[in-house]
Design goal:
- The complex is a heterodimer.
- Chain A is an alpha/beta fold.
- Chain A has helices at residues 2-14, 21-28, 56-61, 89-93, 112-121, 133-140, 175-182, 194-210, 227-240, 261-285, 353-365, 369-373, and strands at 34-40, 50-51, 73-74, 80-81, 97-104, 149-154, 169-172, 245-252, 292-297, 318-323, 330-333, 351-352.
- In chain A, strands 1, 5, 6, 7, 8, 9, 10, 11 and 12 form a nine-stranded mixed β-sheet that branches.
- In chain A, strand 3 and strand 4 form a beta hairpin.
- The termini of chain A are far apart.
- The two termini of chain B are 48 Å apart.
- In chain B, helix 5 (93-120) crosses helix 18 and helix 14 packs across helix 15.
- Chain B is mostly helical.
- The chains are: A alpha/beta, B mainly alpha.
- Chains A and B meet through helix 1, helix 5, strand 7, helix 7 and helix 8 of A and helix 11, helix 20 and helix 21 of B.
């Protein structure tokens, strides 16, 4: 039964005249540029990711955790990458890796849950918004109807920047399994019960998307083992499906390294670098590297001064990475001002995270950021 | 003036008496509502039994039968000598693999034990509240890496599940698994670790917005030295690590230690309100009513944080019984999986496939996603988990050959990674999870009330009246309303 059904789907996907109006429409639509967001869940230590290795304050704040300057992957006289990010060095050399330093916001909140809510909804520190910033963007500027979805969240976790009812979004552990299961989705109806209305809405999305998602492309690229490698593989599948999606959100972590940070952090950054590198190879293979941007985000960075447990506590501004075939590589924002820490010992921000988002909205998609973000924020010339 | 008013009250009282005090009983729907919300599913016999009781009688009966210990004996390893924490760097690759394998096997065993307790206990309310506190004081095996410590914490949560919140809070602050999970075990006066101090205010007592960053820093100093003996896995106080200085917390100043901080937090009115609101979301609906929550909070504080008076106030409230709140909650994965087993009288030999199902649906006991616990509510349902839920139900209710349609997956798994092999083993182990329509029909006093037993809310697509019984049951569990409680 199941095999026959899957074969049928494959055949249907290959035959342009197999009664598929959506497929024909997809050929006419210019492919919307893709954004792949990687959430560094738990708050990544920006200082040990993009390392101010020649700043004497860095070494003195971090007697145990400072990265040995001899091991840093040097980018400039002052700035280098954590050794586990070695695999990203060729991107830097090719001027395809933009590093945005000091991304944060005024009156930072140090609670994981509140701060990621601020990031996900692009709100002010004391403002509570319901919908995610990308959900609002797609409400204002919908993706073509032929798209399988506005956004896909790969793996478990909340819908994050895609949460809220404004956008067509789906969560997906593995596209092949997703297709296999779609036949079980059924039913539709109207109801006054909000919980039931939510379930019925998800059902409708599943059915609509499953008809358009095609998966199972084989890449030459070898993907890293483990859950993040699988997620990257899924993202590559989604990037190449005929009907298109606008955003894929992946997540990696936990980066919440309060104790014994060194090994955990090195391991996570290695996964990040290997994942991004595999993604690039797969996107190149599929001819999608020039129409994709990959960008990281997190609720906060970590405190410059290490704690007594060999870890770091919740901080504020942090560095983020952006890469893609059209990205203008280089350093943006400002190096961490370790001589200007606030009363809690945390860094001031140099780039408002909404400016980071505005850059993607405006310079990548041509969506007016003002309406989405509730104000004007300076964009960065990385695209 | 006074006399007519009194007469009116008497008249109302006389009118209400025969019906008032809920003399007619909560009825079949009411009993299903009460037992599903306070437990995990219920059989027709249990629902019928409770249906004859009044509100208060029914709630008091639930509260009178709570437990402080599990009824199912725990896995043997929990009583074995404490497995010291290994310094991973001192182990060879093989030893590391062996430690990892042991942790994985033990974690499946422990989870299966807890799900069995939920499925079999004479007091489902005890397990409902134990799970509620596990979600409140969320602690994950992923970081603790000791099932013995996770078990000890679970036993503590159960002991005080319907006991006293103040006692529980003080005990959880010294609980070894918590000390590891929120890093207090290594916190010393030279540089206090703020993790526990922050979460105890934000997530365990006051809620966000009722304290400042400075309060956290000061409280972190008070908890320094609350640590763990790596040899025994017991709490230990490290005098030389403790900061004996003066601290100012929430406007109070003194040479506070951790116990003092907890008492300061317990003295704040926000704490009772925070817990009461969370209880509302657990038992009533996703949208707490401020006035009613405030009433419960007063009951809670007046009762010196005894849990039973709070629960009694909640479960006898009009809000709990309001028709508007029936079917207003999304079932958690544990509700769905264990509730399906209980309601339909399915008694598998091996609970590990049930563990696997809960985990795949987003609720892996002993491994909440973070210290805030599972978000719950609508967040349980996204396209992946909704399909997963359908797949679980489909498998249980498919009929005599539950594995037939999964053949391609099994072929794929056979060649796959060790994780897939495990998955395959568990799926094959679901043979005795199959629903037995004849046995179930025989267990119902009246087969026509199966709708009222299975659904908390009218079906989206009501099954045809003429449908044969097994088909009718399948249609009910496949309906979107089966995801509600």
């Amino acid at each position: 039964m199941t095999l026959a059904r899957r074969d049928f789907l494959k055949i249907a996907a290959l035959a342009p005249f197999a009664g598929s109006a959506a497929f024909a429409a997809a050929l006419d639509q210019p492919s919307r540029k893709l954004l792949i967001l990687i959430e560094l869940r738990g708050g990544n230590d920006g200082l040990n990711t993009v390392v101010p290795y020649s700043d004497p304050l860095y070494a003195s704040l971090r007697p145990r955790l400072a990265i040995d300057p001899d091991k840093v992957v040097k980018l400039t006289e002052k700035t280098g990458l954590h050794p586990s990010l070695e695999k990203l060095h060729p991107r830097w050399e090719a001027r395809e890796l933009a590093i945005v330093q000091g991304v944060g916001y005024p009156q930072p909140n140090l609670s994981h849950f509140r701060s990621i809510e601020i990031w996900d909804t692009a709100s002010k520190s004391d403002e509570y918004l319901d919908a995610g910033w990308l959900a609002r963007a797609f409400a204002a500027s919908p993706s073509p109807a032929s798209f399988a979805a506005d956004g896909v969240v790969v793996g478990a976790g909340s819908m994050g920047p895609l949460s809220g009812n404004a956008a067509r979004c789906i969560a997906l552990a593995d596209p092949a399994q997703f297709l296999r299961n779609a036949r079980l989705a059924r039913g539709e109806g109207e109801t006054r019960n909000p919980a039931l209305a939510h379930i019925l809405r998800v059902e409708r999305d599943v059915r609509a998307s499953a008809e358009k998602l095609t998966a199972g492309r084989k890449f030459e690229t070898a993907f890293p083992a483990g859950p993040f490698g699988n997620a990257v593989n899924t993202a590559a599948q989604l990037a190449t499906n005929e009907s298109g999606v606008a955003v894929v959100r992946l997540s990696l972590g936990s980066f919440d390294t309060h104790a014994n940070q060194q090994g955990t952090h090195a391991n996570l950054l290695r996964q990040l670098a290997e994942g991004i590198e595999a993604l690039r190879a797969a996107l190149l293979e599929a001819g999608r590297w020039d129409t994709t941007v990959i960008a990281t985000y997190a609720e906060f960075g970590r405190r410059p001064r290490e704690n007594q447990s060999g870890g770091t506590d919740h901080g504020t501004a942090s560095a983020h990475l952006v890469t893609g075939g059209k990205v203008k590589g280089g350093l943006y924002g400002a190096a961490p001002a370790l001589d200007r820490l606030d009363g809690d010992g945390n860094l001031p921000h140099a780039v408002d995270f909404r400016g980071y988002y505005a850059t993607l909205l405006d310079r990548w998609w041509g969506i007016d950021p003002k309406a989405v973000l509730g104000g004007r924020f300076e964009t960065l010339p990385i695209l | 003036m006074l006399i007519p008013a009194m007469r009116l009250i008497c008249a109302i009282a006389t009118f209400l008496l025969p019906f008032g005090a809920h003399a007619a009983g909560i009825g079949y729907d009411g009993a299903r509502h009460l037992l599903n919300r306070t437990g995990f599913g219920a059989t027709d016999a249990e629902v019928a039994d409770y249906s004859r009781l009044g509100r208060e009688e029914a709630v008091d009966r639930l509260l009178a039968s709570t437990r402080r210990e599990a009824s199912v004996p725990p896995p043997a390893f929990v009583d074995a000598p404490f497995d010291r924490f290994y310094r991973v760097s001192n182990l060879s690759a093989d030893e590391r693999m062996a430690v990892q394998r042991k942790l994985v096997l033990e974690s499946f065993e422990l989870r299966a034990w807890w799900l069995r307790e939920m499925a079999q206990t004479p007091s489902p309310l005890t397990e409902r509240m134990t799970l509620f506190w596990h979600n409140h004081f969320a602690t994950s095996q992923q970081k603790v890496r000791s099932l013995q410590l996770m078990y000890r914490q679970n036993a503590l949560l159960r002991r005080e599940a319907l006991g006293n919140f103040a006692t529980l809070l003080h005990a959880i602050a010294k609980d070894p698994a918590m000390l590891v999970y929120l890093d207090n075990a290594g916190s010393r006066r030279q540089a206090p670790n703020e993790n526990f101090a922050r979460e105890v205010m934000e997530l365990f007592t006051l809620g966000e917005g009722h304290y400042g960053e400075q309060d956290i820093k000061e409280a972190a100093r008070a908890f320094t030295g609350w640590s763990l003996d790596r040899e025994t896995g017991e709490y230990t106080y490290r005098r030389v690590w403790h900061d004996y200085g003066t601290k100012t917390i929430l406007g109070r100043t003194g040479r506070f230690d951790g116990e003092d901080v907890l008492d300061i937090l317990l003295a704040r009115p926000e704490t009772a309100r925070f817990i009461a609101a969370k209880l509302w979301r657990e038992f009533v609906s996703p949208t707490p009513d401020a006035a009613e929550v405030s009433r419960w909070a007063t009951v809670f504080r007046d009762a010196k944080y005894e849990v039973k008076p709070l629960l009694r106030a909640a479960l006898t409230s009009d809000a709990f019984w309001s028709p508007a709140n029936r079917g207003a909650l999304v079932k958690s994965p544990v509700d769905l999986v264990v509730g399906t087993l209980r309601t339909f009288g399915i008694r598998p030999v091996d609970l590990r496939p049930a563990v696997f199902a809960c985990a795949a649906l987003g609720q892996n006991p002993f491994a909440p996603p973070n210290v805030k616990g599972w978000a719950g509510g609508d967040a349980w349902i996204d396209s992946a988990t909704l399909l997963g839920r359908r797949q679980f139900v489909d498998r249980v209710f498919r009929g005599s050959d539950p594995m037939a349609a999964e053949a391609p997956m099994r072929v794929a798994a056979a060649a796959g990674a060790p994780g897939q092999a495990l998955r395959r083993m568990l799926e094959q182990g679901m043979g005795d999870y199959a629903f037995d329509a004849d046995r179930f029909a025989g267990s119902l006093a009246k087969t026509e009330r199966v709708d009222a037993l299975v659904l908390a809310y009218p079906a989206v697509s009501s099954p045809d009246r003429e449908m044969p019984f097994p088909e009718r049951v399948r249609a009910l569990v496949a309906d979107a309303s089966y995801q509600l409680k």
